[in-house]
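[recover] target loaded
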């Protein structure tokens, strides 16, 4: 399917990513009533192409200009690509001249929790500083681990090679709707969006960091609550020491706090070869953006 360019005010043309043509409604040329020649765009980087000076971004809606979609953007200043990897959340200025548009003033959006008090945030930062030595970098092989699923089966990361793995960390007693509930809901969306071959090639892992309470039986009930297809979405628990090690690999911080657990958020994407593709911190991304990132990894 040929996806026509989107035509902005003044005849400026932007091209949606044609890889996703079959996954989106057919886009017809639209003239937007944009009055300014510069717009702020926010979203998630899906791919970085240094040689082409281009980034592929799953971006949020730009009011008065274009809806949320996945789109490549030229980057004229190559230095602005520094530090960008798949899963990076960014904000940039979309500059438009007479016949082209490009991304400028690219800024990485660091996660800042608005739900947690400043003392808690500082404590999490201290934990992060201690664990950074164990954290693996993008493109490194993800260390193997073995945990127990909600059906009391042993699941090893090494046994999933050949599939794309998306992993998050939760605990079933989490009281904040924007934390574990939101992350689990994102996985529910992924489960529903990927079917057929793509569904068979994708595995979701939700690892609890509350193994004392999140037994396999509790996780089985939680999986049922979310209507999880447990043939491809596993809820995992294990020894506290093993979970602490896995959390450190991916930069998750957590500590007990008056009967609950204060924690950060991490969503990890691992490719078919077992390499870390993305490690997204926080909850400031949409399920659609995570879907775009996963779909690109599956391709």
């Amino acid at each position: 399917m040929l996806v026509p360019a989107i035509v902005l005010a003044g005849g400026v043309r932007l091209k949606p990513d044609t890889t996703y043509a079959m996954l989106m409604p057919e886009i017809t040329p639209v003239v937007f009533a944009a009055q300014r020649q510069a717009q702020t765009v926010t979203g998630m980087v899906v791919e970085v192409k240094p040689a082409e000076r281009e980034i592929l971004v799953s971006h949020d809606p730009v009011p008065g200009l274009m809806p949320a979609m996945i789109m490549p953007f030229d980057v004229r200043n190559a230095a602005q690509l520094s530090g960008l990897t798949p899963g990076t959340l960014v904000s940039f200025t979309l500059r438009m001249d007479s016949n082209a548009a490009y991304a400028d003033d690219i800024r990485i959006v660091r996660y800042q929790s608005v739900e947690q008090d400043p003392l808690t945030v500082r404590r999490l930062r201290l934990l992060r500083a201690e664990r950074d030595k164990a954290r693996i970098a993008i493109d490194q092989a993800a260390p193997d681990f073995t945990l127990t699923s909600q059906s009391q089966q042993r699941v090893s990361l090494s046994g999933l090679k050949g599939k794309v793995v998306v992993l998050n960390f939760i605990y079933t007693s989490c009281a904040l709707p924007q934390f574990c509930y939101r992350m689990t809901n994102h996985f529910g969306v992924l489960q529903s969006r990927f079917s057929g071959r793509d569904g068979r090639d994708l595995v979701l892992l939700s690892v609890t960091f509350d193994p004392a309470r999140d037994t396999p039986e509790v996780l089985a009930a939680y999986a049922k609550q979310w209507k999880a297809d447990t043939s491809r979405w596993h809820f995992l628990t294990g020894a506290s020491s093993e979970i602490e090690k896995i959390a450190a690999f991916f930069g998750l911080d957590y500590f007990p706090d008056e009967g609950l657990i204060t924690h950060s958020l991490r969503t990890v994407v691992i490719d078919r070869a077992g390499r870390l593709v993305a490690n997204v911190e926080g909850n400031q991304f949409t399920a659609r953006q995570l879907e775009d990132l996963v779909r690109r990894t599956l391709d």
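[recover] notes: Residues 10 and 202 are 42 Å apart (CA to CA).
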